[in-house]
Amino acid sequence: MPSQPPNSPDNADIRPFSATFPAITGRPEHSLPAASPAVPPLRGVDVVCLSHLRWDSVFQRPHHLLTRCARDSRVFFVEEPVEGIEDGAEVRTVAPGVRVGVPRIGRAGQGSPEHRLAATVERVLGSHCVRDYILWYYTPMAIGFTRQLSPLACVYDCMDELSAFAGAPPGLRTAEEELFRKADLILTGGQSLYEAKRNRHPNVHAFPSSVEVPHFNRARRPQADPSDQAAIPRPRLGFFGVIDERMDLDLLAGIAAARPQWHLVMIGPLAKIEAGQLPSAPNIHYLGKKTYDQLPSYLGGWDVALLPFARNESTRFISPTKTPEYLAAGKPVVSTSIRDVVRPYGERGLVRIADTVPAFVAAVEASLAEDDAARVAAADAFLSHMSWDATWARMAALVAVAVEQRRRA
Question: In CATH terms, are 22-210+387-408 and 213-383 the same topology?
Fold first, then answer.
């Protein structure tokens, strides 16, 4: 392991969290521009989202934001294309105001895939009478089949550094450069991403992960254990999220071996790794994917929540949504030194930080032994400034300004 991994705190460009995010609002150093009274609201303006994520995957940032957007606007969530018999798209309603479209590329179609995808997207929008709309990108790769569209504004919500992930398309960086030129507004999923992107566009804003506090507060109530967790002995150390190349599998194996009386509960789907690559031990339990609504019930039965991420290029800019979710559940949290966890959560004493097996074990032991009343109170005070409702309201104000500026131009 390198002596100073990419996401270890080097203090070279770290400002206190309170200075970087005034009043814990999730904004960068400069103030967010407020929409003037002349700026029309987003109500009635459709949002067409281009995503690398499947809607039916784990419930995360796009779901939180777009279901709130759908209170005032129709949302069309366009997933990455799949292969089919012929060109077309399946469109289905998944939530009030949210439709998901899955484009198909026919195996025997004529012309380039990008041109055929462009035609499919235009047909879908036309069939649903989508005329005044905003393009909302999560994947730069969608730029190839949306160049012909004429939105009211273009937003890039950069939630991850996708080019650092395993299996990233070779043209992703070039596509992102084009998207930066096209976009009116850039949002980032964390402070580290903001610092990496802020000099590439004149209108970049940091929006770190937020949380639905009441939802995860449910973990604090007395309740029955879910059936597949009830027989697992305690103490239990838990994780939920996608289990992929970002997970430090050696660390998991080391913790399980060092403390066989502890039980590690791993919840979430596998992605880009095989089940055979996972560490196997009598005290590691893989319970698979759970719904967002089920998570508080599982959290309620844990003694410590874990963020056992590897320190590599794929985790250099991540801002795990589960950090505030664990804290809202009232759980002590131990994490590796992911930069956007170290600041603000580690710096404020809300999360213990450890990278080696001995250090991680010691941090868990301290968590199990602590009187958690003071930590929970401090976490609750911190989280009282955070909500996905407030995050979306600030984003919507920025989008409204971008629409107004493009109209004037």
Answer: yes
CA–CA separation, 403 vs 73, rounded Å? 15
CATH placement of domain 22-210+387-408: 3.40.50.2000
Q: Which residues pair with 105 in a beta bridge?
A: 83
Sign of the dihedral through C-alpha 215, 218, 223, 226: positive
Which residue's structure tokens are 């939802």?
215
Owner of token pair 């960086």 = 173
**pTM of the entire structure?**
0.87
Contact 134, 155 (CB under 8 A): yes
In whole angstroms, give the CA distance from residue 409 to residue 407: 5
Q: What's the CATH superfamily of 213-383?
A: Glycogen Phosphorylase B; (3.40.50.2000)
Contact by Cβ (8 Å): 99, 121: no
CA distance 360 to 156: 36
Q: Specify the residue for token string 């499947």.
A: 54
pLDDT in tens, 170-186: 889 999 999 999 999 99
